[in-house]
Amino acid sequence: MTTPPILDGLVPAALAPKTRRIFLQEFDLPVDIGFHDFEIGAPQRLTVSVEVWVDEASFAIEDNAAAAWNYDFLRTEIIRLANSRRFNLQETLARAIYDLVAARAGVKALRVSTCKPDIYPDCAGVGVELASF
Hints:
2 helices, alpha+beta, 4 strands, GTP Cyclohydrolase I, domain 2
């Protein structure tokens, strides 16, 4: 098997990537969340989206897992946080996810959102978002 040639120098500088984004979109999981009596102890469906802009050094240029920013980290840590306790507010869980990801090396910008999609029959969902921009 031959390795394809590296095409260094063929991409004009104006087209060089300015940002590098990694994301986990609408991760759907049950969470014990809410402050109403009927919500306590009754896990609800929550979707979580995380967008991470990373610096060039943190974005894989080689085609191997060791060079990649680990998506599994996002997913497993969100599960761990969601199962670590009960949450009264989406804001609290979103902040915990945000703080966890923001502390990682190479993060330049970040957006975290949570959404309860099953609250109102006439709405796609209700939620919160935190962003560094």
